[in-house]
Amino acid sequence: MADVHSPEIRSYNMSKIHGKDTKAEDKVRKYLFSQGFRYRKNDRHLPGKPDIVLPKYHTVIFVNGCFWHKHEGCRYFAWPKTNVDFWYSKINKNVQRDKLTERQLVESDWKVIVVWECELKKDIFFRRMDNLIKEIQDQKNEINEVQA
Ligand SMILES: [Zn+2]
Questions:
Q1: Domains in the chain with CATH codes
Q2: What residues sit around ligand 1, an ion, with C-beta below 5 angstroms?
Q3: Residue 2 has what pLDDT?
């Protein structure tokens, strides 16, 4: 069992604290593009400005940082030891906003997929991307069945 408070993890958390890290989103976008998917980025007309919007599949993808979005049970999420009240309020606000956003999107018949940053680590990246594409294409099948 890994020590969640090891210096390595702490520096990972700290790197998330400094502004928005766009690298993770770009990794997913590039992969989808290479597989022939076409998308819109940060669509402001949709709740939560989803990182990736696939109109053809009526699917949106959020690429969430494990720290900012409180990935439960993830080794990359741990409450900071200092400024506890500040972080508690900030992170919980993010989580509440995520839930509301997801509900609004689902109510408008969007399929919502969350990709966590920890799922983009080298050793599991391609497996996660395979599954992601299956999740996206499942939605297409569902739409076709409804229309048929
Ligand atoms: Zn995670």
A1: 7-147 (3.40.960.10)
A2: 66, 71, 74, 76, 116, 118
A3: 46
pTM of the shown model: 0.79
Tell me how far apart the alpha carbons of residues 106 and 95 are, in angstroms, rounded to a whole number.
Answer: 17
3 state DSSP class of 82? coil
**How much is the pLDDT for 143?**
56
pLDDT number for residue 82: 95
CA distance linking residue 20 with residue 111, whole number of Å: 24
Residues of the chain with pLDDT under 70: 1-22, 139-148
Q: Would you list the DSSP string of 86-124?
A: HHHHHHHHHHHHHHHHHHHHHHTT-EEEEEEGGGGSHHH
Task: With H, G, I as helix, E, B as strand and everything else as coil, classify residue 77.
Answer: coil
Q: Give strand ranges (E) for 1-148.
A: 40-41, 52-54, 59-64, 111-116
Which of 27, 23, 17 is closest to 67 using CA atoms? Answer: 17
Report the separation in Å between the CA atom of 35 and the middle of ligand 1, taken as the mean of its atom positions: 24
Please tell me the distance between residue 9's alpha carbon and the centre of ligand 1 in angstroms: 12
